[in-house]
Structure prediction request, 289 residues.
Amino acid sequence: MSLFQQLSIDLHHGTVAVMEIKPKEIHQTILFLHGWQDNAATFKTTMEAYKKHHPFHHLIAIDWFGHGLSSHKGDDNFYHFFDYIDDLHQIILQTKLENVVLVGHSLGALIASAYCAVFPEKVSALMMIEALGPLSEEEDKITERLRQGILSRQRYRNKPQRTLKDKQAAIELRSKVNQLPELLIEPMVTRSLTTSSEHVQWTTDAKVKCDSLYRMSEAHALSLLSKIECPVVAVIGSEGYGHLKQKTHRYRHISNFECFKIEGGHHCHLEHPDQVSYYIGVLVNKITT
Prediction:
């Protein structure tokens, strides 16, 4: 029997798919937020590992709109970063979560960090995996950013939806792209596929791949980070995104911050779920002792 329940949440723009581990007695709720082009199953092994030591914690992982089993947004929506924050707020309100712990990987962590700053009363603790707050860039990049964003939308409109021969071909492709063993990537790939009699196709909305039209300045990012009131833990992979090594100045802008570096790449939580689940426990301990 699976530990996980599969359900959905109806929001204003569609349905968000959820996988959760829900005990009868709940001491703490943790909401897991996946990264770009991933889905809730990226946290499957981390949640299983965490459950072993925290049987009374409610663990929820969502698929963002346009990912996994969740609805796609309309043809005129290109998944703006700030809209994800709105989506997260709707999820928290709809599920009546209070004092929730947010665990985000990559894009999920960027969204969670901004949300913690804007709605500090809703969040009791934050973990960022392979992230250190919102992405930013120099103000003089705005023209090129806007141009590339518009051109990426045009490429999307003219590009047919990609199909694959079978599930194994999809697993091999994602394994190569993410530089991860097939066994680790399989649950996430399986949740991102739909199968017909002739081929398989990604469920991820192709519009997700379009470039952002805007990225905030570093001053804006630091201002958001300085407004986070809850304890924050970052987990960074030794072979993960290199730009995070240039972001250490951000540490001092978060009032209650601790960073842990572990072996692994950008998906270090897939490579070392036991270690990441341990650090989630460290974070939760900060608010329960």
Notes: The chain has a mean pLDDT of 95. The chain has nine helices and eleven strands.
